[in-house]
Amino acid sequence: MSSSLRARPHSRWWALIVISLTQLVVVLDGTIVSIALPRAQAALGLTDGQRQWVVTAYALAFGALLLFGGRLADYIGRKRIFMIGMIGFGAASLYGGFAQQGWELILARGLQGVFAALLAPAALALLTVTFPSGRERNTAFAVFGTVAGTGAAVGLLLGGLLTEFADWRWCLFVNIFFVVVGLIGGALFLTESRAEGENRYDVWGTITVTLGLGALVYGFSLAEHGWGDPLTITFLVLGVVLLAVFVWIESRVAQPLLPLRIVADRVRGGAFLIQGVAGAIMIGATMYLTFHLQFVLGMGAFPAGLATLPLPIATMIIAPIATRLLPVIGPRPMLIVGPLLAAAGMVYLSGITPDGAYLLQVAPALVVLGVGMAFIFIPLQNLALSGVAPHDAGVASAMANSAMQIGGSIGLSVFTAVYAASVGGHAQADVTPSQLTDAYGWTFIAAAIFMVAASVIAMFLVRGTKEELMPTQGERALAAH
C-alpha cells in the first residue's frame, strides 16, 4: 500500500476519534433499542413475536453481510464505503424514528444492520491504514477496543436515558449526531485506500448465506407456534439447505466470501461456535432481563439501564486479570470454566420471583455472568487468529464478529420460542407477573444450557498446548488487514 495513502500525522488522532465514534454507534445500536422495546411495542402495537425482530433484524443483517461489507470496502475504497455507510445508517435511523407501524421499525432496523455491515469493516481497515505500526498503533487499537467493549453497556444506558426523559424514538434519532460527526470528520481526516490486485465479488455466496441465515432465524421464531408446525419445519429445512449450498459455492469459487479453511480448523471453528453462543447470551438473554426489570420490577427505562451495569463492570474488572492469566494457563481452561460460570449466573437469574429484590435476585447473577464473560471474550480474541495465514487474518477477525451477531439473532429467536411456549402464546398484557417471571426464568435456563454447550465445545475442539493455541505477535498485528 502506498505511503501516500496514509493519513497525515497531525490528522491521525482526529481520524481515531471519528473511527471510534463510528464503532461506538455500530455497537451501541445493538442494544440501545432493547431498553426502549416495551414503549415501542405499546406505541406501534407490536406482538411479542414481532418485538424480538426489532433486535433480530439488526443483528442478522449486520452479521450476515459483514464479510461482504469488508470485501466492498477493500475493493471500492474504504473511505468511500465508510461515507456511504454513514449516510445510509443515518437515513435508516430517521426512517425508524418516524415509524408509524411495527413493520416499518423492523425494516429500518434491518437497514441499519445492512449499513453497519459497511461501516464496521471500513472503519477497522481505515484504522489499520492510519496507524500502520509502532506505539501509536497499539494506543489506537486500545482506544478502539475499549469503545467496542463498552458500546453495548453505553447503548443500554443511553437508550434508557432517552426513553425515560425524551421518547423511545430518540434511541434512533440520536444516531444523526454520530452520522453528522462521522461525515464531517471522515471528509476532513480520513484518507482513501483500497486493496490491490484482481478483485471479484462472491455474489452467490453472499445471497445464499444471507437467505439461509434469514430462513433459519425465521424458522426458529416460528417455533413459538410449535416445533412440529409445517411452516416452522419448512423454514428450518430451507435454511439448512441454503447454508449447505453456500458451503458448496465457497468450495468452488476463486475468491470466496468465506474461505472454508478459516472455519475448517478445529480450534478456530470451535472458537467461532463459542463466540456465537456468547452472542446469544449478550444479545438474546439480556433483552429478557430488561423486560423483567421493567415489566415485573416496575423500573423505568433509565433505572433499568443502570441496573444492567454489574455485568459490564464485572467484565471490565476481570478482563485485565484474564489477560495476564492467559499466557500462563492458555485459552482452553478459560473457555471451559468461563461458560460454566456464565451458566451458573443464568441459573441463579432463573430463580427470579415477582416480589424478589433486585439486589438479591438479579445483581449477584449479573456479576457472576460478567466474570464468566471476561474469561470467554479474552481467549476468544486470540483463538480467532491462531494459526491464521496473513492474507486470511482480516476474514478471520470479521468472522468472529459475524459469529457474535448471528449467534445473537438465532439465540434470541430460540429464547423467544421458549418464552412463548411458557406463556402459552398469550399476549403479554394477559399474563400475570408470576407467569412472566416463570417464562423469563425458562429463557434463562435455556441460556444456561447454551453456555454449558459452549464449555463442552471448548473441551472437545479447543485442544493443544498453550503455545500452539496462542497466536504470534505478527498474527495479532495482521488482525485488521
Q: What is the H/E order?
A: HHHHHHHHHHHHHHHHHHHHH
End-to-end distance, in Å?
Answer: 11 Å
General shape: globular
**CATH H-level superfamily of the largest domain:** MFS general substrate transporter like domains
Question: Helix/strand-derived class?
Answer: mainly alpha
CATH topology call of the largest domain:
Growth Hormone, Chain: A
Whole-number radius of gyration? 21 Å
Percent strand: under 5%
Enumerate the spans where pLDDT stays under 50 for 5 or more consecutive residues: 1-7, 473-481
Helix percent band: over 70%
Number of helices: 21
Written account of the structure:
With about 475 residues, this protein is an all-alpha fold. It has 3 domains: about 1-200, MFS general substrate transporter like domains (Growth Hormone, Chain: A, Up-down Bundle); about 205-250; about 260-480, MFS general substrate transporter like domains (Growth Hormone, Chain: A), CATH 1.20.1250.20. About 75% of the residues lie in helices and about 0% in strands. It contains 21 helices and no strands. Helix 9 packs parallel to helix 18 (about 395-420) and helix 15 (about 330-350) packs antiparallel against helix 17 (about 365-385). It is globular and about 60 Å long. The N and C termini lie close together (about 10 Å). Residues about 1-5 and about 475-480 have low confidence and may be disordered.
